[in-house]
Amino acid sequence: MRKKVALACTHCHSRNYTTEKKQQASERIEIKKYCKRCEQHTLHRETK
Asked: In this structure, are strands 30-35 and 15-22 parallel, antiparallel, or unpaired?
C-alpha cells in the first residue's frame, strides 16, 4: 500500500509537489527539485 505525501521547499516552505511512498517507510523523503517560487533548485522535504 502506498501513501500520498506533500513535499515542501526548505527555503520558502511552499508545498509544490506530491508523491507516494511505502506506508511502512519511517524515514522522511528529501529530494532536490525546482521551486517555482524561489526560481531555483532547492531541497524539498516531506511534510505531515
From this structure: unpaired
